[in-house]
Amino acid sequence: MTEEKVKPHPDPVAPQFVASDFNSTTKLADNQIDDDDYNPFEHRQIDKPNSTSGSLIHLLKSSLGTGILAMPVAFKNAGLLFGAIGTVIIGLICTHCVHILVKTSHQVCQRTRIPVLGFAETAERVFQYGPVKLRRMANFSKLFVDYGLMATYFSAGCVYIVFIGSSLEKVINVAADLDWSVRIYILLTMIPILLIGQIRTLKYLVPFSALANLFIVVTFGITLYYIFKDPLVFDDKPNFASFATLPLFFSTVIFAMEGIGVVMPVENSMAKPQHFLGCPGVLNTAMGTVITLYAVIGFFGYVRYGDISAGSITLNLPTEDILAKIAQLLIAAAILFTFGLQFYVPMDILWKKIHDKIPKDKHNFSQIAIRTGIMILMGGIALAVPDLEPFIGLVGAVFFSSLGLLVPCVVETVFLWPNELGTFKWILIKNVIFSAFSIFALISGSFVSIEEIVKLYTNDGHTE
């Protein structure tokens, strides 16, 4: 399998780029800016372009993961009314931040006459051609995004492995009357993980994302069946929980909804990138679906299970029912098929940083060896510490709130500074408000995660 590359265009000023290239170091001449006639979409030539529907599937899958199963717990920490309103508002904020990131990337491509830029490259170029005093921040902004994405997605991959192994343990041990340790199931999980993690092209991951989406939809259907099976009781559920538990709500929803690392690779690999933004557009369609599903599962899941809502709503389903077992197996399979897409993001970043140092004739072998080594390391961490969730929650709180909310706001502000910020500088005011919310989510989410880690490893925690 080969990577998606943007072929050189006959125009001598259009350099060669990789469609999902986060880390190109190609330098531009100062006279290559402010060319309003340059359309970057017309200069993109991708070996294996992704269709609009395929891009929609990827974007849906990047935001539909284990987080949605925790939405009843989020609502428990927010209350029915506040949870419903808060979920919609956070979803719209996340969607807006993705929108301004992609829009700014397009505008930077136009001004700098580059056909395609990744997330980190966009941040770097914005500072390079921004206010003089901020240009020294260009390299830092690129490195911050790169290493933030790698830390987030490699860590999330470890949790995925633990989640799959734990789900298999709960179902198979009961069904087959076994007493196998979760570590045995983690080892078994590593077999398909090692195969799926070798896929290097987004186009070939579409079938896996499609199956994962199908499995999640079926799991949702089964879950909704149990939720609505008996009459619901609303009276004993508060509309607002308490201020003390709001950080748990915000950190859960933001971590669950954000798929910022997948956005630019998906958009950059599209055959028709103009379909990504706009109305309805790939972004609006995907995020509208995500917000609706999150609100429905969270609201009615909390109404059904109340204060006993588990970290994953599938754990609240009656274990003696075959339908509940099917739901647990399907969600495990969905997370397994999601691994390839999540692993693509950090590996793409890492490979761009090191591929120039490896002889071309050894690229294929090197990719296989590096990917295998990293996945074995991730599996080893999962085996050593099966209780990874609090640690990953900390990483997610730090990087998803900063990468998904703060960075897009900063990038847009720097790009438009100082004369294009709108009437009364409303764009600046809006971005300051969103940035403040991001910092609040970062601090509160980190505090909650650290608190959970302390509880886990002091009072009543243990590792198997």
UniProtKB/TrEMBL annotation:
Residue stretches in coiled coil: none
GO function term, MF aspect, one: L-amino acid transmembrane transporter activity
Gene Ontology CC entries for this record: vacuolar membrane
Compartments (UniProt record): Membrane
Pfam families hit by this protein: Aa_trans
Keywords: Membrane, Transmembrane, Transmembrane helix
Positions of transmembrane segments: 81-102, 143-168, 180-197, 204-228, 240-264, 276-302, 322-347, 368-385, 391-416, 428-450
Domain Amino acid transporter transmembrane: 51-450
Major localisation: membrane
Domain of life: Eukaryota
UniProt topology in membrane: Multi-pass membrane protein
The protein, known as: Amino acid transporter transmembrane domain-containing protein
Organism: Aedes aegypti (Yellowfever mosquito)
Lineage: Eukaryota, Metazoa, Ecdysozoa, Arthropoda, Hexapoda
Gene: 5579654
